[in-house]
Amino acid sequence: MESYIQKAKILVEALPYIQKYYGKIFVIKYGGSAMKNEELKNSIITDIILLKFVGVKPVIVHGGGPEITEMLNKLGKTSKFINGLRVTDSETMQVVEAVLTGNINKSIVSSIIKGGGKAIGFNGKDGFIIEAEKQEMIDENGNKLDLGHVGRVVKINPDIINAVLEKDYIPVIAPIGMDKNGVSYNINADYVAGEIAVSLNAEKLVLITDVEGIYKETRGSKELLSIIKMEDIPNLIKENIITGGMIPKVESCVIALQKGVRRTHIINGNLEHSLLLEIFTDIGIGTMILKGEDDGNE
Amino acid sequence: MESYIQKAKILVEALPYIQKYYGKIFVIKYGGSAMKNEELKNSIITDIILLKFVGVKPVIVHGGGPEITEMLNKLGKTSKFINGLRVTDSETMQVVEAVLTGNINKSIVSSIIKGGGKAIGFNGKDGFIIEAEKQEMIDENGNKLDLGHVGRVVKINPDIINAVLEKDYIPVIAPIGMDKNGVSYNINADYVAGEIAVSLNAEKLVLITDVEGIYKETRGSKELLSIIKMEDIPNLIKENIITGGMIPKVESCVIALQKGVRRTHIINGNLEHSLLLEIFTDIGIGTMILKGEDDGNE
Amino acid sequence: MESYIQKAKILVEALPYIQKYYGKIFVIKYGGSAMKNEELKNSIITDIILLKFVGVKPVIVHGGGPEITEMLNKLGKTSKFINGLRVTDSETMQVVEAVLTGNINKSIVSSIIKGGGKAIGFNGKDGFIIEAEKQEMIDENGNKLDLGHVGRVVKINPDIINAVLEKDYIPVIAPIGMDKNGVSYNINADYVAGEIAVSLNAEKLVLITDVEGIYKETRGSKELLSIIKMEDIPNLIKENIITGGMIPKVESCVIALQKGVRRTHIINGNLEHSLLLEIFTDIGIGTMILKGEDDGNE
Amino acid sequence: MESYIQKAKILVEALPYIQKYYGKIFVIKYGGSAMKNEELKNSIITDIILLKFVGVKPVIVHGGGPEITEMLNKLGKTSKFINGLRVTDSETMQVVEAVLTGNINKSIVSSIIKGGGKAIGFNGKDGFIIEAEKQEMIDENGNKLDLGHVGRVVKINPDIINAVLEKDYIPVIAPIGMDKNGVSYNINADYVAGEIAVSLNAEKLVLITDVEGIYKETRGSKELLSIIKMEDIPNLIKENIITGGMIPKVESCVIALQKGVRRTHIINGNLEHSLLLEIFTDIGIGTMILKGEDDGNE
Amino acid sequence: MESYIQKAKILVEALPYIQKYYGKIFVIKYGGSAMKNEELKNSIITDIILLKFVGVKPVIVHGGGPEITEMLNKLGKTSKFINGLRVTDSETMQVVEAVLTGNINKSIVSSIIKGGGKAIGFNGKDGFIIEAEKQEMIDENGNKLDLGHVGRVVKINPDIINAVLEKDYIPVIAPIGMDKNGVSYNINADYVAGEIAVSLNAEKLVLITDVEGIYKETRGSKELLSIIKMEDIPNLIKENIITGGMIPKVESCVIALQKGVRRTHIINGNLEHSLLLEIFTDIGIGTMILKGEDDGNE
Amino acid sequence: MESYIQKAKILVEALPYIQKYYGKIFVIKYGGSAMKNEELKNSIITDIILLKFVGVKPVIVHGGGPEITEMLNKLGKTSKFINGLRVTDSETMQVVEAVLTGNINKSIVSSIIKGGGKAIGFNGKDGFIIEAEKQEMIDENGNKLDLGHVGRVVKINPDIINAVLEKDYIPVIAPIGMDKNGVSYNINADYVAGEIAVSLNAEKLVLITDVEGIYKETRGSKELLSIIKMEDIPNLIKENIITGGMIPKVESCVIALQKGVRRTHIINGNLEHSLLLEIFTDIGIGTMILKGEDDGNE
Question: Contact E182/D111, CB-based, under 8 Å?
């Protein structure tokens, strides 16, 4: 009986967090290991369903998984990368869109439904959610680099997302856009998540990745930066504290904050229930990036 | 960190129960020690607010507390009791209504608001929620006994309760009714809770009392009856397993079940978080009374 | 037959007033003799129901009646008064709240329902309608006086009042507020009525009292001031034309006018149907206080 | 002051009637002298506006006035009558429709608007409210008589009437119908009013005429029949108590009662405020025809 | 089969125009020959019904037809004209209103219903759509000329028009207005159409007349001006290119454009399906008058 | 100009069909050549957009295209067929779902959006639209045949389809279902279209295929059967008039008719604008299958 009462107390401890986020929109970028490992996937999906039932409105933007590379490999397609971006010819684009939309997206949808939630999957063409254009890139000599179907967001049209949120579905969005001529583009999912968070006036943007957040290394000992002010980001990049693949994630957060999202989080999907822990504990388990005027308290 | 993950897992264990009761109405009769002891009161009120935030629609019917007797004592009024019912003259009725509605009811309302919930208190005259009539009682010789302003429910008008539920308030109802001439009646709160549960087509009627549920005593050892079929009640009364003050509670449950409430519970308010434990664990901690065709599983 | 036609003509004479106030909110402070005398009470309640059926939206704020003093007397509590305000210790506050909310408020609700109207009673804790704080008071020597649970309005939250108005109920409000810690306060009903009128953007604030309005005495003959401009109030106080208990009433009116209520009235509840007469005749029967730019015509 | 209080009391006496009819639909056939005499017209229109403001939903069906005959006279058209019905050739029909719809109907609309009400005029073609067909008539020899554009109601389509009632307009309907080929028909306004009352599920059908109701003459003294059961009508016709132009009026009432209208009234438009008097007094001033099971009390 | 495919292609060619005008309001002034000739009338009415079914919201304002003059002739009334405006005494006004509202308006309504559309006819008194006042006119000597019941628009109240548009009816409006005293005025239908277009924030004002549009004559050869900028109108009048009855039409267009209507058209009702042709072809068949900053393309 | 008028007349000829189908749901199975040939694809998509703009509510269910076989070929997967059904192992299922949902479905969505329409693509997992189960198949010896992920419809949940129809989107549905454990199934698109038509209470089910409809061959000359009663289907199959791939199509139609769809059509997608021609001409261009009591006229 004692253990039951302990459990009840833990539920009750969650109440202030539940009250704080009731009716708020969280845009969650879901990617990395948390998509590959079946146990971690279950943990994240369950967290998301729980958030929905305690009154949060989650919106998922997912990345690609190993299935894309696997399929390209099977087809004997090898991709060239420039600045970490896959040069995407039309045939590759077709495979990317098929696997992202038809396999990965629907696998998330089906997991939510199996878990007792309601979900609808979209790619950015549905309801023209994501209007995109070709990503321009210039090399060090000022020459244009052609990355093919790599795109960037021009405009988000959130109508259909809002419509399904109202009907209590969890929208699950593949980061594919198109331009007005119907040309498809593959877009970085972190940026898509940020722009969608802005268009929905979200309370939080949460990026689930494979690292625990941003660390500062001093004399060999690493310390997690639980809170970073967005104004400090440029220095942290200069000082090489934020590097590599973390830079676009941090940029998505900064853009989202600048355009009105209240707070942004980078958390480690390798940790079970990382999403709940970040949101339902005071200290959190990842890095929260916030506006200068925000002291990190409620 | 481990302890945090354990906490997250406990939240996640609650998910199936949350899903099961999402959007359902629970009518909770709140009385006894759980109203007097400040800690127990906080525990119950917090449980109710939590239920509200995870999607349940709680409706509270409360009993009288020691404040009524205290006030009557201060006024030098001594009450006569017949069959456990207080003979209620007009002056007593005035005190009962004042204390029930003005002190006890508003104290519950204010506790919910302090806890971050939204609440509205009613007595049964408001919106004519409870139409009542004089409770007839006959002694062993067939003579009428006059209990004064002791009443019984004639009709529940749930319009205003439904209206405030829609606006996300927790309705808190004092068991006072009136007849068409405006005469006030004091009514047993268990019965009022049962009738209100019926009028709202509630999923559950939960009676919070000072005992742990119904016990069977065999050779000195007491065993809690976790589940009782309503058809077995008459025998249990005959066998003196259900006795005394438990009888009207059980009767309220049976009436509610017969008129369409799905399940009824009698639980011990002296146990911290008893409400959460009864609802969010498989075994429960009190006695569940259900219909014959209901096997007690979901 | 002639007398019937005369009656019909009188109904028809009311039409322009009915048209003028159709759909408008009137906040009516109900107190004094009009609450004690059964006949006057019926007259006022009937007037209010009639107003409701001809399209006005009445909101009642009531004062305390002799029942409070009576109950305190029975309990042997004697109250000390400072500047006309009852020093209210916790025990007194409990009695005040019980009687105001549980007896007086519900008696008004039940009278309206008996009269064929729909009513809901609130005290200011319900839906946190009245957020209050301790009334500060300083004596002539600059020392703080402790009046106990005497409060003033911090904020009105009119959500639940609007919700029940939409469902065609007459809200009846007891002038009890609480602060964020749940501490109860007794507040002057005239001020509460004024603040509620402001929060509802009311057309009229009507204070029903025991005097006929404001009088000017010249050489022994008294003349009722039917219309007073709010700008003239300071002089009228200086000239001792407005004195004593009338001052807080007039102040409530001025505050309400300054914050947007269109017109305010002080009328005599000792006169039968005074409410109808003030509203449905050109001359009125009490004193109308209005803004400087308002000429008193429609 | 006394006279004012008397007036207030008269308003208050109207309250039970106002409560009884709140939100109910009254279909009022308006015709005869009450349309010609300016004072009587004002009296009726004012009564109707008052009914609207106290919560009744009036729907007006009007007859033709002397303007039609006047216009036909000016045009040198003389009409032949068969069984009291004007033989209506196409040219006559054009004049009838023009004057009924363009002059009489709009004159009523404009009077209501001038009186502070909201009104919309229709003829039965608008929204195809009245689908009609040629009225067949056979003479004593079994030969068909051709009455031209005299029609009868085939079907009422109340959609647009309900739409404008919801927007708080008083619909004013000219008794013109058309068939599916667009052929216009002039229809008896009493019958149209009855059929419209049925289609709107009206509480009352009120026919305003030039006589005071139905009278029984015994030994020279006339007595108004205040209440007639519809089952007694055939005998009253046989006994020549109901005769002539009263027969179609009575028939419209009986049809309306049989198809669900609650009560029907025939009242004298020559009496000022006859409409209010019939509805807002117990005895009424005309003849009420009701169903057998209805005892005439509320 | 080939011819069928050709037909399908023609339907498909209309798609871009349908998309462009979906959900937009067109106010159509319907008058002249297109009202007299049965075939042309059918053509216009069918065009309007088709527009309704492909998503346009048409609103019709109609002029008077020969029926008015015919009726006045039959009555032996001869009208005096000043500056092309009929001096309208009360008797004439009564005839004008009767024929316009009762015959012409209802004939349009009935044609739409026969064609499978839904229609409601109004004159400007209904719902007080058109508040009007006497048209002042001064002769060359500065003396007032009394034109009788000739009026001008003071205010349009579009509430009831919007209400019936929402219910999918086509409103048909006779250009009769009244002042606050209920005095009727006959108003130029082109101006009424313009003001109604403004009050509805219409996409287009279309005036159907008896000429093909505005022509420029150079050396004997006439050329239709397909597009005119509203800024060029004063010069075109000075150069006698716009003359006579065309001037008020052009003025109505200019006023409508200045107050927010997007584009205005003057087209020839003598041409079959002129309305469809003007709207569903790039070149159009009449004259489009538009704002200076509008290049005439979409 | 003449040719323009001819065009207008053709538009007008379409009006009766537009009126007939206004607001009705058409479920269109889109497959075969009409998906491969770019010109035919444009023709069908344009027809569907046009239908939407003239008031029809189209719902598209699409089949697989050559892209699936192409992708399987590239991957070196060869499929075994049993009774014309592809034995679908998990790897094949993954490819089928990816290409159907990610390429074919989104290509249709993007074509509609480019054409000026609004579209949302679903596969049957989204909102759990299609609950499916494994298709059981037994060979001639009574042995079970394992077709892998070939499924049949258990239940259609049309909630999300209705939600997007209300918001004026065209839903585009890939014929993929799943069972409650999340196992994916590939389902015959004709059957899916039929079941969806039933769940939406559709007016029409239209199957677009590569043949012109059902033909009867008599002495070498083929005659299209424009109308077939569903009761005659068994005989037509027995007589080998309906054979091969046409049988499942006809079966889908019969099931749809039996469950309440009004009419069903099998038309040739190789013919330009076949959809418009079948619907907007009296004779149609394919085969209409209807219920016995339906004479094929409106």
Answer: yes
Contacts of D269 in chain C (CB under 8 A): none
Residue F13, judged by CB atoms within 10 A of its CB (0-12, 13-18, 19+), counts as middle
Query: Scanning the structure block, which residue is given the tokens 């034109």?
Result: E147
Q: A157-189: buried (b, 16+ CB within 10 Å) or exposed (e) per residue?
A: ebebbebbbeeebbbbbbbbbbeeeebbbbbbb
The H or E element containing residue D34 is: helix D33-36
From first CA to last CA, the distance across chain C in angstroms is: 35
ipTM of this complex prediction, to 2 decimal places: 0.94
Contact between B121 and B108 under an 8 Å Cβ cutoff? The reply is yes
Residue F78 or residue B25, greater confidence: B25
Whether A and C touch (3+ CB pairs < 8 Å), yes or no: no
For chain B, say whether C42 makes contact (Cβ under 8 Å).
no
Question: In this structure, how many other beta carbons lie within 10 angstroms of the beta carbon of residue E114?
Answer: 16
Interface of F with A in 233-292 (CB under 8 A): none
E156 within 8 A of E196, measured Cβ to Cβ: yes
How far apart are alpha carbons E170 and A26 in whole angstroms? 46
Please tell me the CATH superfamily of domain C17-215+233-290, with its number.
Acetylglutamate kinase-like (3.40.1160.10)
Chains F and B touch (3+ CB pairs under 8 A): no
Residues of A in contact with F114 (CB under 8 A): 180-182
- Looking up tokens 């003033």, which residue turns up? C152
Residues pairing with E173 in the sheet: E61, E122
pLDDT of C73 above 80: yes
SS3 content of chain C, % helix, strand, coil (to 5): 40, 25, 30
Give residue-wise pLDDT tens across range E246-272: 998 999 999 999 999 999 999 999 988
For residue F78, what are its two tokens? 């060869």
**Three-class SS state of B32:** coil
In eight-state DSSP terms, residue C260 is T
Strands E263-268 and E204-209, sheet pairing: parallel
Q: Which candidate in F2, F15, F49 is best for mutational testing of the E interface (most E CBs within 10 A)?
A: F15
Report which DSSP code applies to F118.
-
User: Among the residues of chain F, which ranges form H helices?
Assistant: 2-13, 15-21, 33-36, 38-53, 66-74, 90-97, 106-114, 159-166, 189-199, 233-238, 246-258, 274-280
pLDDT band at E7 (very low <50, low <70, confident <90, very high): confident
**Residue C220's pLDDT is what?**
80
**Structure letter (DSSP) for residue C200:** T
Residue D246 pLDDT more than 70? yes
For an interface test with A, which of B2, B10, B40 has the most A Cβ atoms less than 10 Å from its Cβ? Answer: B10
* Chain F residue at shortest CA distance from A177: F110
Interchain contact F167–A (C-beta under 8 A): yes
Give the integer Cα–Cα distance in Å for E153 and E166: 25
Buried/exposed code over C48-64 (b: 16+ C-beta within 10 A; e: otherwise): bbbbbbbbbbbbbbbbb
pLDDT of B298 strictly over 70:
no
Q: What six digits make up the tokens of B298?
A: 């979901």
Task: Please identify every stretch of chain A with a pLDDT value under 70, giving residue numbers as ranges.
Answer: 1, 298
Are the C-beta atoms of residues E15 and E46 closer than 8 Å to each other? no
Give the distance, in angstroms, between the CA of residue D146 and the centroid of all CA atoms in the same chain: 26
Phi-psi category of residue A208: left, alpha or beta, with phi > 0 → left and psi -120 to 50 → alpha: beta
User: Best of B125, B149, B185 to disrupt the C interface by mutation (most C CBs within 10 Å)?
Assistant: B125
pTM of this structure? 0.93
- Across the interface, whether the CB atoms of F120 and A160 are under 8 A apart is answered yes
CA distance C20 to chain D (A): 10
Report the pLDDT value the prediction gives residue C298, as an integer from 0 to 100.
Answer: 67
Q: Would you say C81 and C87 are in contact if contact means Cβ atoms under 8 Å apart?
A: yes
